[in-house]
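Can you give me the bound-state structure? Components:
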Amino acid sequence: MLIGSGPIVIGQACEFDYSGTQACKALREEGYEIVLINSNPATIMTDPKMAHRTYIEPLTWEIAAKVIEKERPDALLPTLGGQTGLNLAMDLWRHGVLDQYGVEMIGAKPEVIAKAEERDQFKAAMERIGLECCRGQTVKSIDEARQVLSWIGLPAVVRPSFTLGGTGSSIAYNKEGFDNLVRRGLDFSPVGQVLIEEAIIGWKEYEMEVMRDRDDNVVIICSIENFDPMGVHTGDSITVAPAQTLSDKEYQRMRDASLAAIREIGVETGGSNIQFAVHPQTGRMIVIEMNPRVSRSSALASKATGFPIAKIAAKLAVGYLLYELPNDITKETKACFEPTIDYVVTKVPRFAFEKFPDADPTLTTQMKSVGETMAIGRTFKESLQKALRGLEIGCFGLGSDSKDLWGTAEQPSDDEIRSKLSVPNAERPFYIRYALKAGFTLQEIHELTAIDPWFLDNMAEIVDMEEELRRQPSLSALSDAMLRKAKQFGFSDRQLSHIFSVNEFSVREERKRRGITATFKAVDTCAAEFEAYTPYYYSTYEAEDETPAKIPGKERIVILGGGPNRIGQGIEFDYCCCHASFALREMGIQSVMVNSNPETVSTDYDTSDLLFFEPLTTEDVLNICDRIEPIGVIVQFGGQTPLNLARALATQGAPIIGTSVDTIEAAEDREKFQQLVEQLGLRQPPNGIARTMQQARAEAAKVGFPVLVRPSYVLGGRAMEICYDQSQLERFLGEAFAASQGQPVLIDRFLEDATEVDVDAVCDGQSVVIAGIMEHIEEAGVHSGDSACVIPPYSLPGPVVQEIREATHALALKLGVKGLMNVQMAVKRENDRPVVYILEVNPRASRTVPFVSKATGVSVANIATKVMAGLSLAELGFTQEPLPLDVSIKESVFPFNKFTGVDTALGPEMRSTGEVMGISERFSIAFAKSQVAAGVVLPTSGHIFLSVSDRAKQQVVDLARRLVELGLELMATQGTALALAAAGVPIASLKKIQEGHPNIIDYLIDGRVKLIINTPRGKGARTDEGKIRAAAVIYGVPCITTIQAAQAAVKAMEALRTEEMTVQSLQERFARLAPALVQETARPSVTP
Amino acid sequence: MPLAAKLALEDGSVYEGYSFGAAGETDGEVCFNTSMTGYQEILTDPSYKGQIVAMTYPEIGNYGVNGQDVESGKPQLAGFIVRELSRRYSNYRAQGDLHSYLQKYCVPGLSGIDTRALVRRLRIRGAMKGVLSTTDLDGDSLVRKARGSPGLVGRDLVRELVREVVPEASRDWCEKLNPLTKLAPATTLGATGILPISGATGILPVRSTTLEATAKSPHAPREGAAKAPHVVALDYGMKWNIARHLADRGCRVTILPGTATSDQVLAQNPDGVFLSNGPGDPEPLDYAQDTIRGLLGKKPIFGICLGHQLLGLACGAKTFKLKFGHRGANQPVLNKLTGHVEITCQNHGFAVDPESLPAELEVTHVNLNDDTIEGFRHKRVPAFSVQYHPEASAGPHDSHYLFREFVELMAKA
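Here's the bound-state model for the whole set.
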């Protein structure tokens, strides 16, 4: 049995899909039967072909126990599912489930996990082997904490035990702050413990990836040096592999420490990650922590070296020795060695602070990044610049692009630079460049940032190169040697075009004319010492190119991935890209993956026939196309990233396959789309386009309030807002224009109280098959990526669903879609009659594709890929809409606990990071499962706080009655309380926050409120209700912010009184489904 | 722009890059090393005599050079090739930069070439003779010179080294291992303390000791160690860390040049004899083989690298030249006696031929990558040796136990 890591959250992303998928494949290969539990449907590992029994069920010990009871696994491998997997395994052990069913924990025993994870045990273990830890102690109360502070002194780190990605971990600089942090930490820790430690801010930070087999053979896979010193969570740091500034003496000392640590802790088999801090002047080395499992850094180390850590860890767990396993890359040598690399790897985190304007953007020991990009270059300079353009934040390297403030009116002053350097933040690398340009010395910058001078000087070399380039009169005047050197320093064509004020493609032409073209080098684990059979390449500017020649008779198709995870674009798109690759391989076509995200399955060495670990920019993709001469490039699976490149790629002659670029643009183009909708006799909410504030005001007046304001060409509802009146409109327009970056802003009439529907369909140009129709639980206006949705529709009448089908068919055929298409619609009751409105059409893979596949058993992305490669739906045998027997509900998961103080009310701007799925024959139980899986505990007793907007007052009465019948006690602020009391519902009235104590916040702190139902009247962290919602996050109380979700929750609570949640594997569900599918084919097909 | 420099190989290929270190011209066998750390140890390892070494890791010079991380008194190799020479170094132990270091010791360096392309060529075609020059940039001329270079096969580099480096007279060794080699408590490593965020690191740390001062220190007069086992180390180009290890194990170490006879060794009345590493082809070193034959069975013997090959030859085995050698710090070796794998540091272009191994030698260690012999022991007399470098430096410390075993063997004898 394997445990997945659940929904994508900050600190735990696709890397555990990568590790779990590798483990499934590795163990299947050995003939084991695999039972997998994971609540996240967007994963490759939960594809029914990966494990023998796949349970998409909540990751609680109670549910996992049911799976164990049913499947009776022999062993549980807990080390590949992140902290979630490890914690769940420990829970199962503590509750005696493993003993009861005789399940052996392999990889790491419970005692070992406890020894590595519990600070005091860990520290004692490290002291036994002569290693120092940070001075400090674990405490269970504020008094104990103060006691510890008296001997370690300020600043001090407060770190809650057993949390993901260092949740709740912070540095206290004064006594008052210290007390607050301790209180919060005690709450956050699932075991009510926090660690108080001496602060070692500014020390150099390193990580070592270690593997051990059952016979005590130990190897180091990779060393990693953090660019950002101690004080910034390693997940938020720029990190570099291998370590750059350690001499062999110091490196070997760290290696000795790592070996001693894994042996002392006793991790039997598999990978571990050990973090060290080194004092920059004295070399004093401290062990920070150890993860006795495959971690995010393991994924990075795997991608950085080509060594498949998760796969080998799985094989070691079932008893292999390191030297019995082959190195897949070299074939002739064994997995028992230490990879040596002949390039530099740089990982840069990607943040999403623009989604959380109230959050503190300072980087601390609590992880805040939502994704990462990795780049490979022959030098740190090259890899850093590649990584910065791979971030996809509008930068094309270290400055000299449209985001560059230097030389503009907004050029930062020395004081601004100083403040941006002294406090860690996402923009710091760019401010280091400004500092260098402003004439700061390396010593000054080092003093402000504590970043190692070696890294700083490499950045200075980049800046020196830039200055040298700027001194040249023109691009054509540039010598070949200097142009080549600039490319070797990682300068992109875009940066050069910016420096020389020419078009990016002129740079490309000039370069090619002079024969300065990208070469591709292999990632081979051994620095070319052995012949490699690797599919894994990166670009650089060197003499020799190693790209493999075309195999005669085998065509190549390029799949463009999604780049770093961000809110709105993550694992769902990686899932689609992987399936595209699998589908192409099934067709005998060489699949060529291009991606820069080290967390993903798509960048695993055996997912595709060729893997190019490259930034997703026009230049990098064209360079690849130049070398490998593909017959097709797929842009519709990687989210917005490849779509944004499509036009430029097509113009430069890249063979985009599937839906044409014109069609993609037609769907995005307001006017063209409006005409199309009209021609088809469909309806759209009244809307308009504005290029100026003036136009926007006029359009809003024409369309009528409430209006939805949004920039075009953005993903995840960036800067999208609903405005109920002129003042709100004025407030949000500015932001919308800023986010749209020169593209127009769209103004739609907002449909109040409408039901939103998502449809995924595949079209081959001739016929259309709907893959799934999803009804949202939250009303229209909540971003589709943030709302819960249900397959099949649970409240829409049959004729409406039929109308939705027909509209989808008509749109797909009219647009000429070839591949996937997603349509968003809204159903609004008007004059007592449901009216279907078309909100948006996206002729590409949507976020819901994996969910639809898991709900229906149909691999939609696979079919769509084959359609793009030229097969028809009829040839593929996919002619009927799959109709599932079960109810599947997708629920979203939010990162609010990382951004304290942020209002959690849902809106048109997407803020969720991940998703879970609940499946059952009944809606209520499926919803209950989705809530449990999302970490929302539906209470069976205690107080519920109600506070609803006037619009919802009517609906809340029924809801409140049912809650009382369930035995729950209600409390509300005056308005809601009066309304309910008037309707005869027993309810206690509470003071508002500004009315004094005790108010709702006091009840939250005391833990007396178990659930909050609060539908927003206004939004923002400064409003009273915003404060309540933010406080709910801090005190871990679930807060439901829409009436529809509250109704579903009450249904679930009612159902749970009489019914238990049962578990069933996807394989069993789909086996039941198969005959149903056959029956379906007998019915006449639905065509427009 | 720095000066241009070129490397030419005997197969006619020419690589153009930039000069660093000393200007001039040098020739030798071109080989590559896959260690990602430890360039200073590699530079000063006498086994690299007559070789031009290319590092596969592209960023070199990052942590500078210092007075401690040396394996002999000066850089020994003929030339040094890197992809990217670090413009500035950063490390608290650094005392100078790589470029000046090589310049001072007259070692020419070449940077800025596609080292991976060079390595792939060497891997596919085998080690080749080459010339590195900053003075002659004519490709054809350089290729001719490369072809004329003497190469390593059949050449007695030990005698050249004895003349150049190894003092003729015997000397005693007292320097022990760098404290960093052990997981020692922090106090031995210097001050502890918390760095305030504004604290200056100092980009060029000032040190009171100079490079020379520490580099010359190990041969200080020995102090009374009456009961300590006395080891005579035959120096064919010994890495200092071997002597440090022996001293650290409590041995009294006397170093004799590799040309010493068995009588000269026995005259010291040692408890054991150590056969060191050294450069080049072991076969022409018949005097060394004679010496070993004269010691076998009389004194416990432990050999490393060239010492291992010489022990093999002395026992009747043959050696052969590997295609491109083993040079790096990640070579997996299986200890057949324990079943455990050691990650080892290696530097050899020749190896003992398993087909030729006499029955009295028992293979104890094998290379997991290519199954070559990595160690054997004599079945009748106390003698054992390994092809790899248990003293590491640069490299992992997995095989330190062999020094303990040597001390135990001497105690038993």
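A couple of observations. Chain B touches chain A through 79 residues (CB under 8 Å). The two ends of chain B are 62 Å apart (CA to CA).
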